[in-house]
Each structure stands twice: as structure tokens, then as C-alpha cells.
Amino acid sequence: LRFDEKVRVVVFKSEVKGVFCAGADLKERAKMDDEEVGHFVKRLRNLMDEIAALPVPTIAAIDGYALGGGLELALACDLRVAASSAKMGLIETTRGLLPGAGGTQRLPRCVGIGLAKELIFTGRQIDGQEAFSMGLVNHTVPQNSEGDAAYQRAITLAKEILPQAPFAVKMGKLAINKGMEVDIASGMAIEAMCYAQNIPTRDRQEGMAAFREKRPPQFIGK
């Protein structure tokens, strides 16, 4: 996906009705020794980092349970859409663990330190409406009879992104992600570097031409 120029947006959904991702298989985990557990969690953390580093926008469609590593997967995405009935939580402390695939870092960046601490310390599960109210998800929708309401809303959201200039969207994502990790002056410098890369693109010229000619732009991603 990272190197496929045709990919504009990636949507993560589950094929299992009622479950987005229920997290690690604790029966499998119980058979591992300490070294194996450490290796397993490191690989999982690396996977989440790879997802977060995808150059195109990513959307998690949460139509059911997103628990533990399942919520960490959703947090690794840029945007999240949830059914109001979905259940989410970093429940690791209820099993003698702590989030190990990015949850302790991405949740506070998403909802703030106080709420993140409360959710992680208690292992509490929240529904889609609660998640929306605290900013954990971008949109919440009533579940439908097919059980894919969040996915359908995620597709609608993806279709809003698709017509926009692909390279500009990628640079916007890069500027936001890198800028959030530094002070604002350094962030401004990152924005300037990303903007400079966008200036010579054909899409920028097309955007200006389309505006002058009062027609929809036809972006090609170059």
C-alpha cells in the first residue's frame, strides 16, 4: 500500500460482524514465555507504527468491539468512525498488562492526558457515542441491520478525500504528524518544507487553472 500510487485512502474494517478487533488472543499469549511475549509485542508495535506511517489517509471503521490492541489499531489510523453501539477500551490493566502497541502514546495525543489516564487506569469500555464526545472518534452513527454502519460512513468520508490533490493530502498528513511531535516553531519549519515540495507539482498548477477556468480540477497525484 505504501508504494502503490493508485491508493488514495485506506479503510480498515472487520469481516466479523460485531467485532472490529478484540485484541490479542490471551490463550495464545498464555503459552508464551517472557521472551516470546516481548518479541510478540515488539512486532505488534512495529506493525502499528507502519500503519501510522502510511503516506495516505487511513480510516478505522469500528462497527463492534475494539479492545486492547484492537483500539490501538484504530488509534494508529488518522480518522476513526464508530457505530454508536461499538465498544472501545484499552482494557489491558484488567488482565495485568498495560497497552504495549502504542496505546499509552496515541490515546493521550488523541483525547488528552487526563482522559487517557482515566481510561487506561480503569480499563473502562466506552460506546461509540462516549468516544465521539471525548474526541476519540471523528463520527458516530447508529448501527444498521447489516452491522456495517461505521464502514458505510467511513466510505462516505473516504469519498470526500478522494477528489482532493493526492500529493497535497500526503504532505498535509506528513506536516501534521511530524509537527505534533515538536514545538510550534519547528512545526512551522516542517510545514514550510512540506509546502515547498508541493509548489512544483502539476496538481498545484491544475488547481490554479481550474479555479481560473471555473471548472472542477482533475488531479493526477503529480
TrEMBL record:
InterPro entries reported for this sequence: ClpP/crotonase-like_dom_sf (IPR029045), Enoyl-CoA_hyd/isom_CS (IPR018376), Enoyl-CoA_hydra/iso (IPR001753), Enoyl-CoA_hydra_C (IPR014748)
A Pfam family this chain is assigned to: ECH_1
Keywords carried by this UniProt record: Lyase
Statement: the UniProt record of this protein carries the keyword Lipid biosynthesis: no
GO biological process: fatty acid beta-oxidation
An annotated GO cellular component: mitochondrion
GO molecular function, one term: enoyl-CoA hydratase activity
UniProt similarity note: Belongs to the enoyl-CoA hydratase/isomerase family.
UniProt name for this protein: ECHD2 protein
Protein's organism: Aegotheles bennettii
